[in-house]
Amino acid sequence: MKRKKRWWGIWARGAVTAFSLFVALDTFVIPASYSSVKASDSTLFSELESRAAAESTAATATESTAAAAAESTATAATVAESTAVATADSDVVTASAGGLSGTSLGTAKTDDYSITVTKYQEYDTAIYVADITVSSAEIIKTALADDTYGKNITAYTSTIASENQAVLAINGDYYGAQESGYVIRNGVAYRETSDGEDILVLYADGSMKVLDSDDVTVQELLDQGVWQAWSFGPGLLSDGEVTVGENTEVSRAMNSNPRTAIGQIDDNHYVFVVSDGRTDESKGLSLYELAEFMESLGCRTAYNLDGGGSSTMYFNGSVINNPTTNGRIKERAVSDIVYIG
User: Fold this and answer.
1) Among 90, 175, 211, 322, whose Cα sits 20 to 30 Å from the Cα of 334?
2) pLDDT for the residue numbered 250
């Protein structure tokens, strides 16, 4: 009888172990294909651009009405506030223009885009910045590994970039490791389940915002003309203000890490940012340090994408930073990229 109980206990523990292993493999390893990626469609972009323009016009009209009412009731206060804002803006421009010095890593220019890549050394960390101006938000594209939307379908950032003739690329939000979080890529919605966290949306009119995913549905985003939506976060800057604290961190992440971020400076003017980390030569950044750095670049909106071993910048045919995977300088396969090309 005791022997039977002992064997039963061994079998039960084995079954639990096997189930736990299957869950881990299913979550992080076993690939599952849900659909093929739809090709980028200029007609779809034009439709989204029209929706975004209509939303922007309505918002501007509302803001103008509110501003006029405020001005009529508090002219003196408005003048004083305008003076303060102008002074603050001047300080930011000065800091952005004179506070950083780096090494140029090259440029790329066509009629559709202009890219300048610079390497900085800040916070004991190598930080790579691609300063980008585009003729239209349509130029900022995304691509998924193997042109497939699914779970645990991955490829190196450089591989996806090369397959899509990208001139510049960074890793995206690694949507394929999550079961929730909005996924809108090149105007197409692939996942409509909110994760309750910050999302970054790029509208077809070129504007960029950080939103709470619980406050808006995917259909509402498409109706507003959203071209891309990423779910990782958190947001780093909104309206030029840092939105993370010194102790803010992504779950399961160390305080100093390789990082990837995207930000907007002005109309059709963006930055892709990747930092090294976890090496003797490059410590890595906290989220707060990343936010401060994005602010110093002059960003008014900025957002944290997947970091750690995923953090990779590809430019003119090569990986230009030092991605770290399991203690080695090596790319980690990811679900998706953001690219110009």
Assistant:
1) 211
2) 74
Query: Are the C-beta atoms of 254 and 309 separated by less than 8 Å?
Result: no
In this predicted structure, the answer to whether residue 276 has a pLDDT above a threshold of 60 is: yes
What order do you get walking across the sheet with 198-203 strand by strand?
188-191, 183-185, 226-230, 198-203, 208-212
Model confidence at 243: pLDDT above 60:
yes
Residue 252 included in any domain: yes
Domain membership of residue 16 (yes or no) is: no
Classify residue 317: in a domain, yes or no.
yes
Average pLDDT, the chain: 86
pLDDT band at residue 84, thresholds of 50, 70 and 90? very low
What are the start-end ranges of the H helices in 148-225?
A: 157-163, 218-223
Place of tokens 């096997």: 18
Contacts of residue 334, defined as CB under 8 A and 6 or more positions apart, other chains included, come to 145, 154, 155, 156, 157, 160, 171, 172, 174, 306, 310, 312
Contact 137, 206 (CB under 8 A): yes
Kind plus residue range of the DSSP H or E element containing 302:
strand 301-305
Would the pTM count as exceeding 0.85? no
Instruction: Please give the tally of structural domains in the chain.
Output: 1
Domain containing 246 equals 36-340
The two tokens of residue 38 are 């739809």
